[in-house]
Amino acid sequence: MDSKEENYINIVGAGPAGLTAAIVLAKYGYKARVYEISPDIGHRMNGDFQGLENWSSDKNIISLLKDIGIDINFLCVPYYGGDVHAPKMAPLEIKSEKPIFYLVKRGNTEGSLDNGLKEQALSLGIKIFFNTRFEGSSGKTIITTGPKRTDFIAVGITFDTEMSNRAVVVFDDKIAPKGYAYMIINDTLGTMATVIYRDRKNVKKYFKNMVDFFKNKKNINIKNDKKFGGRGNFFIRDTNVHNEKIYAGESAGFQDCLWGFGMRYAILSGYMAAKSIASGLDYDLLWKRELKPMLETSLVNRYLFEKFGNIGYRYLVKKFTKGNPRDFLKRNYNQSLLKNLILPIAKSRYKAEQTTS
């Protein structure tokens, strides 16, 4: 214990991956210092609602968080379904027996995931240095600095509303090219956003189309709206350990290539980074066993999703609304013989896009 207390583990980035790593290390008896270049946590967010996915494994994500040492001291509301729209078809309703996702709030605001993790870290005596660039070059360091490039962008608004609680998803290339738009209402607070994978230079057009769609289709009243934006990055490396530096979160490319539900990847990779230091286990073995199958499958899912366009969107919506949507998603986030055959094609296309973009 003495040697642990005299040596700090440096963590670069105070997002979900970095703060999770710090919390887990503290519970193992290590001291951690977190360096964040921004003035505070959650600087890219504005109190917007996001989804913590709960479909890629049998274990509920809340139980999983508790197992790795994360307390639920933030808004975390289960959602079992909602309305889903696709071009040239009537909206359909999704219903699930178990939560499809848990709604969380992001940014430096009361009840947010970011503030909850920050409070847990500070309560354990973890030092967080804001407005500080990490200049160290030696010793064990966990890098969690976020996206390196832009594969998709999200732009939206948070707002007050009198509308009742609901979740709505839209698949339509006129609103979110090769992506999706969503609206979530929870206790008079709302978020709507378009997540765009293609034609990102025309984001203003798609943002306007999204707002018009929700106003016209859902007759929603919007008050005190505030704009927010974000971006995501996806890639798969052979190793995420370089010169004693361990990469986690989106700095390691850990993102859901299909939907952009990256919080689960971020938190789990932060936990694995800390566990590898505390237990001496190989970090690359940990993430390749737990995360790589889902990363590869999400890349294949992205390839297929883009290939079939509006016809594929209508097919997807119908599949969501027949049977259990959570089971459908779980099956499609796990490997299969067909997806293993398609994977080399999807990887080749992705590498070509990385080279030309």
Strands, helices and their partners?
Elements: H1 2-6, E1 8-12, H2 16-27, E2 31-36, E3 49-53, H3 61-67, E4 77-79, E5 81-85, E6 92-95, E7 101-105, H4 113-123, E8 127-130, E9 141-143, E10 152-160, E11 166-170, E12 180-186, E13 189-196, H5 203-218, E14 223-232, E15 241-242, E16 245-247, H6 263-279, H7 283-290, H8 292-320, H9 325-332, H10 337-356
Helix pairs in contact: 2-4, 2-6, 8-9, 8-10
Description:
With 357 residues, this protein is of the alpha/beta class. It has 3 domains: 2-149 and 233-292, FAD/NAD(P)-binding domain; 152-232; 293-356, no CATH class. It is 37% helix and 24% strand. It has helices at residues 2-6, 16-27, 61-67, 113-123, 203-218, 263-279, 283-290, 292-320, 325-332, 337-356; strands spanning 8-12, 31-36, 49-53, 77-79, 81-85, 92-95, 101-105, 127-130, 141-143, 152-160, 166-170, 180-186, 189-196, 223-232, 241-242, 245-247. The strands form 3 sheets. It has a 7-stranded mixed sheet with strand order 6-5-11-12-13-10-14, sandwiched between helices. It has a 6-stranded mixed sheet with strand order 8-2-1-9-16-15. It has a 3-stranded antiparallel sheet with strand order 3-7-4, with no helix packed on it. Helix 2 runs parallel beside helix 4 and helix 2 runs parallel beside helix 6 (263-279). The N and C termini lie far apart (48 Å). Mean pLDDT is 92; it is low at 1-5.
